[in-house]
Amino acid sequence: MTAAMDRVMDNIDKLDLQGHIAELEVKGFTTIKGVLSEAQIEHAKQAIVARVEEKSGNPIDLETGAGYKGWHYVPHLLYDDVVFEDILMEPKPLALLTYLLGESCLLSSVGCHFKSQGGEPLLLHSDNANGIPEPFPSYAQIVNINYALSPYSKEEGALVIVPGSHRYARNPRPEETQLTGAAANPEAVAMDLAPGDCVIWHGNTWHGSFAREIPGIRMNLAVYCCRQYIQTQEQHPGNVPQEILDRHSNDERFQVLLGAKLPYPWNKEGAKGGLLAKSPRGLFD
Predict the structure, then answer these.
(1) What is the Cα–Cα distance from 278 to 213, expressed in whole angstroms?
(2) Domain 2-278 homologous superfamily, CATH
(3) For residues 191 and 154, what is the distance between their CA atoms, to the nearest angstrom?
(4) 35-60, pLDDT tens digit by residue?
(5) Domain map (residue ranges) of the chain
(6) pTM of the model
(7) Tens of pLDDT, residues 89-104
(8) Is 4 helix (H, G, I), strand (E, B) or coil?
(9) Cα–Cα distance, 273 to 276 (Å, whole number)
(10) Is the previous residue joined to 93 through a cis bond, with omega within 30 degrees of 0?
(11) Is 267 exposed, middle or buried (0-12, 13-18, 19+ CB in 10 A)?
């Protein structure tokens, strides 16, 4: 465990992320400005719009929102375009992800919350809401990295976070989930972001998003990760296209994120050779 901790913290120091570690500990989230280049942003947006247009059968105007109503989650984007592989491996968010979940963590899903004017807000919740019993442990079991691909503000349908809620060790009660009207949670804070910024949060942290109030489309990229013992939302082992495996044949970290060291599930012969011995023993390995 000590060796893994040293590797993780050495990388934090190398990337000058100590202030972000402090924010994660105190607030349960941190923002990194300008992570993505303009080229990455445009490339990702084009790939997402292509998927949405293919599924809906309608052309979509990003400025007016014409051709799309409300908001929906667009899943399983990693295999759609190489740009999502590049974003997954961005060094600074990856270093903070590793601090929270350890070197053995898994990619659970990559998707987009694609949002036009109208619809309902996404009520406050924690990412532990599905199946993790309370009280939550203080260490993270799930981490979300939310990249803004379009501007974030309250009227544009921004992400919302309750600072410090990771320490409550529970999901919000129904009366604590609201974002509008007299019942709105007064501790909820809108994340005002520019395209290319990202917010990373501890899985215990309460978050949601406002409904979009103005014309146009709000787009993000949600990179959702978990510890090795958590069931992933998307099933990667055995399903990763060979061309992606070939591109990352010398990148062990990418392979581990997609399940290369998972000792389970067993087949008829039992445990996969040698992988149980490589299972994590502490918070950082």
Answers:
(1) 49
(2) q2cbj1_9rhob like domain (2.60.120.620)
(3) 8
(4) 999 999 999 999 999 999 999 999 99
(5) 2-278
(6) 0.96
(7) 999 999 999 999 999 9
(8) helix
(9) 8
(10) no
(11) exposed
